């Protein structure tokens, strides 16, 4: 029974896609079908979108109607007589397809998106996006949004990337987007700050003002930040604000309870290295375990150089082991030959070997083949 | 020296065997994923083919029609995806390698898969360095497990360990003749035995050809084994068994493969060198190496080949060699 339902869904989707495309096709080629038919079809589609779950029988009936209309126009001529009228604009509907490539040579919308640099290949894998994009009209639904984004300060060469990341931006009304920008202005974000937020996080504008307010409030309350700090956090790492809150709470828990950072230390970490909250929980714990329990760095040292928690474990591990082999693994600033935790993780291998390990990269490579 | 900037030319050259240094802690499948991702990234940065042309006819059929040709949007990389994708490659390995093993790992790319498979079917020997820790045993036989037993190890010394590994080697040599697939009392068995070391007929039973302790500094020790048909768990339990036989307990802390057939650590590419240029170099190096050792002409017979026999004596990279470099 379940298999049948699945099959049915697929059929409905493909018919829908096919139909959506045929509207554009008719406009392009000035097809002889009367405009009533087209408008009927569009109305059907609109009502269909509101209904959301059309049955297969309805679909079939509509298709039949369309065919009847065509037949009605041509029934006065016999098939045996030579055809004198222009039928070159008639063509079969484009078949349902699994990607955009089948439609793009005939679709101005998709061509415009490509000119902007939108990566359709990535979009078509996302659920619901292909149907959404195919139902768009560039002039009606997209132009104003793109102008709005450009006015906000998103440069033309970043627009493609922006839309690739968040195609749903076209779903929101312009007024709503303006409200979200106004909210930021009311919270004393300057124009440059707003530009940076929107450029760095294409998803930001798709979140309602209340939602953003709630999220900023959560950071302010949990970490006891003042207004300026919240703003610098939002501008420094806009992705953090719209990220999955469960994940952020889990990492906050890990940093506080499992790793044992105090509230003040956590605030400092958040402001200096907000990326730690985006990192997956397990790698974060593993790298902390290595840094704290094997390299014996104190919490204070980690807070002073949070970059070390950001890097991957194998990178820290191989460089620490190399320093240990050379007898240079000395991380106490009060003693001679101090090496700062930041110096361990920054730079390429050759820079590290030259400046920190005072050895050659060849020796480092041979060492790497022994672990 | 020839410089190639066209991706299709490079793609045609991408067939052969690559030898890389697999880090411990990641699976072979993950290594493959990183490798193919890197190759595709580097290939797409080269000059790829332009989109195919799209021919279309426009105009009024009753007056005049025009034929237009333009680059097809349907073949644009933004629509159909990058020109080279990981799915386009065939890439497998012959000898399986466990997650916790680091070291030499040989993979085939495209047509190279056949070579790798044939090489594996000949069952070449592999050499491992096993690091052990005396005094504790874990539930997984490896250092990542939970410690389940502790024991003293003050009574263990170098000579006891050497005696033990020598007896293990002797037992395996005896086993080797039993596993040769012929009656041990027959003339054939005698003729096999006078030739030297032989391979087991069964491909499932591990055989150790050589095992020796190369470093002993209690509680840490390192042993080197030359073997056939081994697998990760077998090597871990070997260390565990050595601990038990020494009237103590031991855990394996690292397994490193230092040789597979004629591929050694010096041929292996480090993780930071898994780029197109280095992999191409590795491929030509491997094909030269396989040609020199006549990998394709090697035997179907039961004996170890000469190259294997000569290598059983000397370790591949000396620890002393590394230390002189610093």
UniProtKB/TrEMBL annotation, chain A:
InterPro entries: MTERF (IPR003690), MTERF_sf (IPR038538). One of its GO terms (biological process) is mitochondrial transcription. One of its GO terms (cellular component) is mitochondrion. The keyword DNA-binding does not apply. It is found in: Mitochondrion. Pfam families: mTERF (PF02536). Keywords: Coiled coil, Mitochondrion, Transcription, Transcription regulation, Transit peptide. Its main location: mitochondrion. Residues 39-76 form a coiled coil. GO terms for molecular function: nucleic acid binding. Belongs to the mTERF family. This is Transcription termination factor 3, mitochondrial. It comes from Zootermopsis nevadensis. The lineage of its organism: Eukaryota, Metazoa, Ecdysozoa, Arthropoda, Hexapoda.
UniProtKB/TrEMBL annotation, chain B:
It comes from the Eukaryota. InterPro entries: PsdUridine_synth_cat_dom_sf, PsdUridine_synth_N, Trub2. Residues 101-229 form the Pseudouridine synthase II N-terminal domain. It holds the Pfam family TruB_N. One of its GO terms (molecular function) is RNA binding. GO terms for biological process: pseudouridine synthesis; RNA processing. Belongs to the pseudouridine synthase TruB family. This is Putative tRNA pseudouridine synthase 2. It comes from Zootermopsis nevadensis. The lineage of its organism: Eukaryota, Metazoa, Ecdysozoa, Arthropoda, Hexapoda.
């Amino acid at each position: 029974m379940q298999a049948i339902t699945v099959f049915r869904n697929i059929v409905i989707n493909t018919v829908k896609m096919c139909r959506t495309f045929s509207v554009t096709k008719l406009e392009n080629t000035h097809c002889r079908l009367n405009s009533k038919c087209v408008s009927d079809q569009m109305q059907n589609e609109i009502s269909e979108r509101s209904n959301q779950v059309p049955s297969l029988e309805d679909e079939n009936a509509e298709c039949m109607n369309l065919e009847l209309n065509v037949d009605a126009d041509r029934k006065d001529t016999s098939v045996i007589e030579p055809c004198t009228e222009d039928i070159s604009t008639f063509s079969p509907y484009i078949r349902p397809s699994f990607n955009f490539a089948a439609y793009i040579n005939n679709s101005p919308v998709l061509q415009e998106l490509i000119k902007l640099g939108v990566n359709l290949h990535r979009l078509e894998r996302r659920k619901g996006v292909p149907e959404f994009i195919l139902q768009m009209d560039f002039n009606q639904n997209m132009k104003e949004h793109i102008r709005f984004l450009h006015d906000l300060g998103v440069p033309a060469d970043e627009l493609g990337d922006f839309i690739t990341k968040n195609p749903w931006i076209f779903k929101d009304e312009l007024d709503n987007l303006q409200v979200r920008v106004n909210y930021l202005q009311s919270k004393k974000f300057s124009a440059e700050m707003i530009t940076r937020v929107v450029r760095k996080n294409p998803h930001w504008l798709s979140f309602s003002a209340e939602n953003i307010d709630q999220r900023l409030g959560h950071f302010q309350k949990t970490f006891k930040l003042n207004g300026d700090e919240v703003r610098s956090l939002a501008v420094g790492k806009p992705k953090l604000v719209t990220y999955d809150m469960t994940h952020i709470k889990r990492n906050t828990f890990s940093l506080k309870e499992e790793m044992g950072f105090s509230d003040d230390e956590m605030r400092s970490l958040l402001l200096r290295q907000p990326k730690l909250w985006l990192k997956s929980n397990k790698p974060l714990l593993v790298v902390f375990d290595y840094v704290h329990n094997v390299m014996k760095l104190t919490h204070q040292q980690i807070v002073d150089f949070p970059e070390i928690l950001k890097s991957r474990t194998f990178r820290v591990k191989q460089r620490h082991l190399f320093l240990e082999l050379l007898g240079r693994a000395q991380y106490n600033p009060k003693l001679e030959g101090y090496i700062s935790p930041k110096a361990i993780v920054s730079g390429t291998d050759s820079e590290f070997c030259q400046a920190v390990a005072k050895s050659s990269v060849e020796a480092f490579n041979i060492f790497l083949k022994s672990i | 020296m020839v410089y190639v900037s066209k991706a299709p030319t490079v793609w045609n050259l991408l067939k052969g065997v690559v030898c890389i240094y697999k880090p411990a802690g990641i699976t072979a499948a993950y290594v493959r994923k990183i490798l193919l991702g890197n190759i595709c990234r580097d290939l797409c940065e080269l000059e790829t083919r332009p989109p195919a042309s799209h021919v279309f006819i426009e105009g009024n059929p009753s007056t005049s029609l025009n034929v237009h040709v333009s680059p097809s949007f349907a073949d644009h990389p933004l629509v159909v995806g990058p020109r080279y994708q990981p799915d386009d490659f065939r890439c497998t390995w012959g000898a399986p390698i466990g997650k916790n093993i680091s070291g030499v790992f040989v993979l085939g790319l495209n047509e190279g898969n056949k070579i790798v498979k044939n090489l594996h079917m000949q069952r070449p020997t592999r050499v491992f360095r096993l690091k052990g820790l005396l005094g504790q045993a874990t539930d997984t036989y490896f250092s990542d497990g939970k410690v389940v037993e502790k024991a003293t190890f003050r009574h263990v010394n170098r000579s006891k360990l050497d005696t033990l590994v020598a007896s293990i080697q002797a037992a395996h040599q005896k086993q080797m003749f039993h596993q040769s697939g012929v009656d041990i009392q027959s003339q054939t068995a005698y003729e096999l035995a006078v030739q030297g070391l032989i391979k087991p007929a069964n491909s499932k039973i591990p055989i150790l050809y050589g095992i020796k302790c190369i470093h002993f500094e209690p509680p840490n020790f390192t042993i080197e084994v030359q073997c056939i048909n081994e697998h990760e768990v077998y090597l871990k339990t070997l260390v565990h068994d050595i601990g038990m036989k020494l009237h103590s307990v031991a855990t394996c802390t690292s397994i490193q493969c230092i040789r597979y057939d004629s591929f050694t650590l010096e041929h292996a590419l480090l993780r930071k060198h898994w780029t197109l240029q280095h992999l191409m170099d590795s491929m030509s190096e491997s094909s030269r190496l396989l040609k020199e050792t006549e990998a394709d002409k090697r035997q179907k017979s039961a004996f170890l080949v000469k190259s294997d026999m000569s290598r059983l004596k000397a370790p591949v990279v000396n620890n002393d060699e590394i230390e002189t470099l610093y």
